[in-house]
Write a structure and sequence with these properties.
The chain starts with a helix and ends with a strand. It has 8 helices and 17 strands. The N terminus is likely disordered.
């Protein structure tokens, strides 16, 4: 997500809907906020009760620990060690990595591979969002596609091991790790007595509790055609996650074409459909994170039908022709505020 929009979204949440500003020294009547660059994005946590620096220290240390276990772009993480074992034998991991891979495998199976956590070799090939990003040749893509396939992952819960059957397979947890982290932060904050907080991991928003006055948070939904300071509308939530994916987040421009970062494991190229942006509203952020990618990949009609089969999940679809579609559960909580868009009933 564009760094300027993330700043705007934080201001939108904190100023427009809480009536509070972020102080340099928080008191019991003021929110306490900290922002750091971690996990390749901007991580912001704002406490509205039980505001202590020690609580924020614990939350950010948790994020740093998870980054050191789950990153594909750092050397000698537990994930890179697992990937290095591919094609040899089962590799024992800790409960954190096992649980995330288990959840990722569940969604890979549920979506028949439109979300596939073994897409790592393809992500590395394109490297969209990194300085080395480029459009690979068809020969390179053809050589990479056989390495992808969630069917080649075996989990053994008894000894907490994961076996990647094919040599050079690579798991990429970029489509699920931020969601897991947001949920872990929420659990940590709750254990320390915090009942009202906002957690923002590069656009993965988790609202812990309601606002101090008992009303709902209003989370802005980004205009997928603008890089900053524009929203389509907002959704009112409490104790829920709002995760957005779209063509605006990370992309590569080359030879007059724009290639977004959501890659199709079947073709090796970015998905092409009618969706510009998708937001998933769920009770847990890990579900929203995986589904934002999976539903985007399915397009409007199939994606809408898929979401309707999932209990406790709602979605906002924004199409390339500026139409907005919402699932039934959002009829009373989503408000369109941008006249450039049309809400389709």
């Amino acid at each position: 997500m564009n760094k300027f929009f993330k700043l705007f979204l934080s201001i939108f949440l904190l100023l427009s809907f809480t009536g509070c500003s972020t102080p340099s020294n928080a008191s019991s009547n003021e929110p306490l906020k900290r922002t750091e660059l971690l996990m390749g994005t901007t991580v912001s946590i704002t406490l509205f009760d039980h505001q202590t620096e020690e609580t924020l220290d614990a939350a950010f240390n948790l994020v740093k620990d998870l980054e050191n276990e789950l990153s594909l772009n750092k050397s000698s993480t537990l994930l890179t060690q697992l990937n290095a074992s591919s094609g040899t034998s089962p590799y024992k991991v800790n409960s954190t990595l096992f649980d995330i891979v288990e959840k990722g495998l569940y969604y890979s199976q549920l979506t028949n591979g439109s979300f596939d956590l073994s897409v790592g070799p393809l992500v590395k090939l394109w490297s969209i969002g990194l300085p080395e990003a480029r459009v690979p040749s068809q020969t390179e893509i053809d050589a990479t596609l056989p390495l992808i396939g969630y069917q080649n992952i075996t989990l053994n819960k008894e000894d907490s091991s994961i076996y990647l059957h094919k040599p050079s397979m690579q798991l990429d947890l970029g489509g699920i790790a931020k969601g897991y982290t947001a949920d872990a932060i929420a659990t940590l904050l709750s254990s320390k007595g915090v009942g009202h907080a906002l957690i923002d991991l590069g656009g993965n928003i988790y609202t812990l509790g309601a606002k101090i006055d008992g009303s709902l948070w209003k989370v802005g939904i980004q205009d997928p055609f603008e890089s900053r300071n524009n929203i389509v509308g907002y959704v009112s939530v409490a104790n829920q996650s709002v995760v957005t994916s779209g063509i605006y987040e990370r992309y590569l421009e080359a030879d007059g074409n724009k290639y977004h970062h959501i890659l199709n494991p079947q073709t090796g190229y970015p998905f092409e459909n009618d969706i510009a942006g998708i937001s998933i509203i769920s009770d847990t952020s890990i579900d929203g994170d995986a589904l934002s990618t999976a539903v985007f990949s399915q397009g409007l009609e199939e994606g809408m039908a898929f979401v309707q089969t999932l209990p406790g999940i709602d979605a906002i679809f924004i199409t390339k022709d500026s139409q907005v579609y919402i699932t039934e559960g959002l009829k009373n909580s989503f408000v369109l505020t941008n006249e450039a868009f049309t809400l389709v009933e």
